[in-house]
Description:
Rossmann fold; 15 strands; 14 helices; Alpha-Beta Plaits
Amino acid sequence: MKHILIIDDDKINLDCARMTLSNKYKISATISGQQALQFLAINIPDLILLDLNMPFMDGIEVMNRIKADPRTADIPVVFLSAEKDAVTEARCLEVGAVDFLPKPFVPSVLLSRLEKIFNNLDQRNELKDRLNEIKDRSQRDVLTGLWNRAYVGGCVDECLRDGTQGALFMIDMDNFKAINDNYGHDSGDKILKMFADTLRTYSGEEDIPARIGGDEFVIWVPGVTDKESLGSRAGDIIRDLCRKLADCRFETNSSVSLGISISPEDGEDFTDLYNAADKALYYVKQNGKNSYHFYSDSSGQSHKENITNLNYLHEILRRSDAKAGAYDLDLHGFTYIYNFLSRLSERDRYVSMVFLINMIPEDGYTPKDDDNSRAVEMLDQALSTCLRRGDVTARYSPTQVLLLLPGINEGEAVVISERIRVEYESRLPGGRIKLKILRKKVHE
């Protein structure tokens, strides 16, 4: 039942309202503004019926006090008054009332007005909840449920503006791409979810764990700048994640590296702290991996600085392409490479081939989701075996893959097409989803 507070110094009006509403609503009653404010200090009703004219503290003053308190400011208020003129009604609405009813009220009218108010409030609250849900989803990483980069960046900047210092952890898995390449993206996704769950375990109530992208995660730790406690937590995270990776028994030599930056000495906004933590992470990867490092512990500036920064930039540029196998891009990136090879072909007669691999079910066969997933996984493995490190792939649709093979001619393209088909069918014997491979020269 909705809870209504009635505030009226007239006992007859109070009893009449109580009798009208008590069958449908939970009713509380007070006979003065002061008594009502004392009641509201420990209770939050769903709606208030407020008499306008009362001694000592009139309805307008009570209303102002209600709106001034963040706890009660959103409670809808309906004024009751023996004054029926438009000026009085307008005044009540101006101070925030949702409705105005003249006294003596008609019971059926009062009930009807309240029902309409509650219906509108329920619809508004439902819409508000849906908008909050949409906003929350836009700030979350879809796969892991952690916060995304935009959200954590905003929170860090807000904390720093408010004077709250802290530390930023950047966590990255060593050799993560090998898991995707050797065991499939489903296995990679499970590892990412395991990472996320582990980081939640090591995050306090005020901490903000987030996935930045790929296998890169961060944790913003507000209010903590002590290196000893931060280092202890970093070590625990690495040990726990490495133990869980070992339990998965992947033969990829995967481990965990972690970089730490601290405000304000390492940066006064998210971008600076992020870059500092990334450089600290790079230091770990260049010095054996599977450890953590504070950015502020790096050696001081010297004549080697430019070389160091160039090496750092080189590592950043190649970080997503540090393993064997074809270069896997999204369609947008694939287009850039295609256009580059097309220009190269125009200028130097450099021959390249583009392939479109179609996965087509046999006539009369409708594959299930598991069949499609299995076929896609086997094609990925076949391509990983057959393609060179300099080749380029991109997913064109759920059942189509694009390939760019630089520096090969038509005859070599025929051989590679057949090699891909044989490798795919050997991994999926008896499979009813076949490959149709189309090809043509780039810039033909």
